[in-house]
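Before the break, one more example. Copy the sequence into your notebook; we will annotate it together after we see the structure.
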Amino acid sequence: MRIKICGITRYEDARTAVALGVDALGFIFFQQSPRYISPENAAAIIEKLPPFVSKVGVFVNENPHRILEVIQIAGLDTLQLHGDESPQYCAMFPLPVIKAFSVRDGAFDASTLSAYKTSAHLLDTWDPERRGGSGNTFDWTAAVDACNVSDAVILSGGLSPINIESAIKTVRPYAVDVNSGVEISPGIKNPYKMREVVSVIRKNTP
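Here is what the structure looks like once it is written out:
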């Protein structure tokens, strides 16, 4: 099972995640996020990373020309679109795209994923004020349904050392995306929580 740590703002956190064997790091370029990082600061971190670690840029309803600029500045190799982007919008870019969907309990239709021919589909918790990073979970039944539609479901939303084992046993997703559940404060990761999450995942997956 692949592991992504999102909301990276410091090189020391990126270095710890890489040392733990994490597959991908997420850099949030949505300025309203408390985990926002500038493309220049992301580039300073990314240029120090070893190969075979995915560098994911997270955007929310961004101008596509701006996304292309950030790709070049930061050195991204994957995009995560976390807003209301259409299937046509998602197909515009030269990099693999992860399309995120906000899941509102009792109001998510997994068949929606079929319209998005993206590299992966990420499920996060709906929040009336925030686009991800809320620290809240959703009813994982929706994620189980999504796994019947997509072979590349990424589970997100309030995952932490406390619930990660239950989450992966219930859903069996392609990957997990962990953010606020391994933080000291927004954008500042807790190395011990990161280590615990990775350890639990490795013990419970082939």
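The longest strand covers residues 97-103. Helices lie at 11-19, 39-46, 64-74, 87-90, 141-147, 164-171, 191-204. Try to locate both features in your own notes.
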